[in-house]
Structures are given as structure tokens and as C-alpha cells.
Predict the structure.
Amino acid sequence: MTDTTSSPLSDQMAGHLLVECLIAQGVTHAFGVPGESYLAVLDGFHHYRDQIQFVTCRQEGGAAYMADAQGRLTGRPGVCFVTRGPGATNASIGVHTAFQDSTPMVLLVGDVASDTRDREAFQEVDFCAFFGPSTKGMAKRVERIDHPERIPEYVARAFATAMNGRPGPVVLVLPEDMLVQRAKARPLRQTQAVQASSAPEALSQLHQMLLQAQRPFVIAGGGGWTVQSAQALEHFAEQWQLPVGNAFRFQDTFDNFHPCYAGDVGIGINPKLAQRIKDSDLILAIGPRLGEMTTSGYTLIDLPQPRQKLVHIHASAEELNRVYQADLAICATMNAAARSLQALSAPASLPWQAWTQAAQADYLANLEPQALPGLDKESSNGLVHMPEVVSVLQRHLPANAVLTNGAGNFASWMHRYYRHHGLQKGFKTQLAPTVGAMGYGVPAGIAAAILTGRVVLTMAGDGDFLMNGQELATAVQHGAKTIVLLLNNGMYGTIRMHQERDFPTHNMGSHLHNPNFAALAQAYGYVGVRIDCTEDFEPALLAALARSQGTLIEIMLNPEVITTRTTLSAITSAALQRK
């Protein structure tokens, strides 16, 4: 066992001090791709290997996605290490995802030596300019640590910034010469997120608005939720019999099996749910930014002044009244806000109980698959009926299973048909990028398996998988087991869908010539199988759950399922992924 004790007066290498500061912040795993610019930090990971694990990844984008998943699962910043220049630019997609998804993260970038700065040295980048920060940037804060004695200060501030207000990513730049200097500083104590409470007068006003409403609706989501805040939200909804919808890709915020649940408010929204939100007279947005995806391209709620009464509760004052002018804006963290809402007393009789019951009925009806005109059940999905595949997942995955996905309309099957038990039951179960970043699901699932040891199911498209499929090697190296469902339709499906709508005779760039994915998975050390009919899926899933080895199940789909007019009309015109 490594001796990690040090006298307060003794000095140590700055790279070791940095790792010690991460340990003090409660970090047990850091994800990254090694680089010569931070060799002293890697030596620190070796020195403290009994207390913290460095997870070696195969590409910096995958490593940053893993850190994002870590932040979502733990509520504390996920940690990613990359080298200068190409390493940092590769990792930027994960930083952008963490920013738009409100995920706490700290990206640490090895940099050129101080005496070569500003000469366009090897792989030099101005990281303060590259990452922001700004309201349209990629990071909440970008700082360079030039003096080793200040490492504890910078690390503690990075963790505080990443967690406080609207959670998000922070970038720390580490000159390689600074990391080999000696320092006598010691880590600061673990930083905790600051809890901002609702003002009593605002709660009183909210109470009156509820009493005056006839058709209220709650939209819950965004970052900063915990088991306790989710449970308080559930109690609030029960007391007031409020219909609740989960914001785009935050479908585990509120229990999908609860009688107050009305469905997910995002891509491919149930048309009846969309109309219900438009018809509501009071919207309580608790946590989400009310961005483009959740509002169906800003059509569910009018800009800038909603026709419904709007109560917007968010942890960041900068988000309130930035896009929508709320009738009541409350700056509060989710823990404090949900507890305050739970304390609001409801009257004995509520005029909207039938409204809530109808919202639940519409949600349950939307769980039933509908045949597409001109395509029967089998031909609509090749020989695999995807609603039945998701039904099999629902029957056999444990309630605490983690489900991950990247970007593509393949994810719509999961979003529509799979029901999350929600954080109220004690576990976060959905990891998916609201920013619509491709390649997220595979590395996020691997991080979840490493961090939690729970069952992890990743749904990926063929184009989506090849963005970061190489991280299966990371899973095998670190003993992580995931199950990957790879939906193969031979195209970038979302792009092809929009081409069929806008340029139906000019399909360009969306066709894919794919490898044998099952064989590719076997080369990485996973079991790879191909499914050609619905009946073969259940035994393949049961076998994957039973074995200790990771499994990739390739599902062959008919590409026509995403090019029908019915499918196009059911999915919002806002792009799910980058064009």
C-alpha cells in the first residue's frame, strides 16, 4: 500500500498535489487520455493509486463524455484530463455537452511550458479564448494555474463554480513546467454546493397563482436534482394533483409510473401533450432552461411573453427572464425549491383533477404502438418491431438500470416507450445529451458501469456508434460490462429524415457503408450478435444479462421507417443532432 501521509511542512511535486486535491474533493475516478504535458499528474495518480483511479480512454471526446456521465450520476463534478491542443479540442464536445446539459465537470488540460507561451509552440492553443466563458461559450470558467502553491485554491474554486447556480463545466489549464515544481500547500476541504432558497413572498405568490389556476402543468428537469429533491417534487405533485411532464432527456426526474405523470416534453412529443401544454393556464417550470427542444422550437410557449401564466424556478438568476418573461421567477436550487413547494398546503378540493387524469390517460395511450400507413408491423421495422424490443427491456432490466444513448432518431424508441422509475426511487437511470451530441451513449454507459456496477443498457445508431465505439476497448481494459443495442439502418437517420422532408429527391451524404458490427465488437472483447427478427431479441438480451462479458446486439432495421410522412409529421422539425 502506498504511503500517502505527508508533513504539513514538507513539499511535494505539484502534479502530486493536484491529485491530492482531487481526492480531497471526493473524486474516486478521473477519465482521460494520457499526454506528455501532464506526466507529473500521471505520476501522482500512480502515487495515490489506492485512493483514486485514472481511467485510460481511447479518445478525448469519449473521455469527456465519461466525465459528463460521472457528473450526472454523482451530482459532483466529473473529472477529465487531456493534453494540450488536439487533446483539448477533441474534448471540447464533452465540455459543450456539459454546458448545455447543465452538468458539473472539471476539464484539466496539460499545456505548453510557461517559457514557450505565445510563440505558437507545439500544440499551443489560447484556451481562455477557445472555451469561453460566456453565455454562448462552452465553459463557466477557464483559468490557468501558473503557481503550484495556488493549486488548492484553483481546484476548490473550480468545483464550487461547476456546482453552484446552474451546474456546468470548468476548465483548468496546467502548464507542464508548473506541474514539476515543488509546493508546500495542502488541499482545502471538500467544497459543497451552495443552496439558494425561495423567498417567502415568492412562495406566497406562487401559492395564490395555484389557487387561481384551472389547468396547471408542471415541466420538471434540468441539472441539480437529487433523490431528496425528486421525492419532494413527487409529494408536491401528489398534494396538488398536478400533471407533470419531464423535460427533454430528463425523463428520470419524475416517476413515469406515477398517476400524475403526463409524458416527456421533448423531441417527438405526444401531440395531445403538446396541445395540453398550450391549453394550460399556469406552467410551473421547475429546473429546465425551457430551451428549444423542450419547447418544440419555442412553439409550446410563446416568445417572449407566454400566453399562459409562467412560474420559472431555476438555480441561476442569469437564466431567469433570459428567454421567457416569467410572471414569477424564483432563483432557487432544486433541493431548496422542491422542499419549499412540498410545504405549500393544498385545498381539499381541486378543480383540475379530471385534467390531470386525462393527461395520464393520454400518456398511457401513447405507449401503445401505432401502425404507420402503408407499412405493416413487420415491414415498418424490417423484421424487428422496436416497440416490442423496448417492451422486452422494460420487463427484464432492473429498475435501477442505467440507460444511455447518443443522438439520432433511433433514440425516439427509447424515449417514447421506456418508463423510468425516476430519482424518487433512489437512482439516476437516464444519461442522454440534451445538446444532441452523437457518440455520447457508449462512453457514458461505460462510465456508469465503472462508477456504479449497475446494469447498463446503451442504445446507439450505426452512425452514432462509430463516433466513439472504440471506447469498448476502455470497457474491457477496466472490467466494465455494458449491453449495447446497435440499431443499423445504414444511414445518418435524422439527417436523412430532414432531407426527405426538405429535398426529397436529393439525398446526399447520409448513406453509410457499415462494418460488421458484431464482428467489430468481438475484436474489442465484447460478445457480438446480430438480430434479424423480433423473436430473437429476448433470448439475446437474457443471455447478455447473464454473462459477465459485455455484449453488443446489432439490430437490423428497415430505413424506410424514418422516411414515411407519418414519421416526419410526428417528430419536431428542430434538429436532434448537428447537421
